[in-house]
Amino acid sequence: MKIGIVLGSIRDHRKGESVANWVLDVASKRTDATYEVIDISQFDLPLLSDEVLPAMRHKSYDDPRVQAFSDAMDACDGFIFVTPEYNHGIPGAFKNAIDLLGSELNGKPVAFVSYGAAMGIRAVEQWRQIVANFNMFDIRPQITFGIFTDFDGPKLTPSERSDKDLDGLLDVLVPIAAKLAA
Ligand SMILES: Cc1cc2nc3c(=O)[nH]c(=O)nc-3n(C[C@H](O)[C@H](O)[C@H](O)COP(=O)(O)O)c2cc1C
User: Which residue has the least CA distance to atom 18 on ligand 1?
Assistant: First the structure.
């Protein structure tokens, strides 16, 4: 069982890196799955311009950068999207990354860890609508952080309660991922 922690900000000095690493630290104490950060900035992904719909590509892409991202996502049984909120919505680069894919996501569960001036809640509500198009199962428990209260510069300063909340989220996500994978 493998859960991908998808880091969806590509900005210099992004806060998202610290959030994704915290998710990995807490999750790695568990024995129910392996956990890996999938950092979209590492794939140098192009803007979607392929005339063939990604869903019709069946996980086989001409662009090696997209293929590498596809392979990384396809290897996962479920996901945690680590998402900031930009302009009351989801980050464009993250949406583009997901737009590049098709069946790698289909029928898999996804949970959300969000952050922003307003905790990223609006971004997650948008993500829940978007992932429905892949028949993904969005998990109800959600972790939120405020950039004015939960960070020291770019570094996340999570409370013990956040660690427990994340464990609770994983208690829901992982069994569903296992059932769906079976
Ligand atoms: C272009 C842009 C728009 C933003 N708009 C919002 C917003 O609408 N609501 C919000 O809560 N935070 C907003 N923020 C604040 C971000 O949530 C905050 O900068 C956060 O650190 C971004 O994540 P990152 O550092 O991982 O990229 C915005 C930030 C940027 C760069």
Answer: 116
Cα(85) to centroid of ligand 1, in Å? Answer: 5
Pick the CATH number of 2-181 from 3.40.50.880, 3.40.50.150, 3.40.50.360, 1.20.120.340: 3.40.50.360
The reply to whether ligand 1 has any atom less than 6 angstroms from the CB of 16 is yes
Which amino acid would we find at residue 33? A
pLDDT digits (tens, 9 = 90+) for 90-119: 999 999 999 999 999 999 999 999 999 999
**Cβ(15) – ligand 1 distance below 6 Å:** yes
d(CA 162, CA 143): 7
Instruction: Judge contact between 96 and 48, C-beta under 8 A.
Output: yes
Return the domain boundaries, the chain: 2-181
H or E element at residue 46: none
Ligand 1: centre distance to CA 117 (Å): 7
Query: What are 154-169's pLDDT values in tens digits?
Result: 999 999 999 999 999 9
CA distance 147 to 168: 22
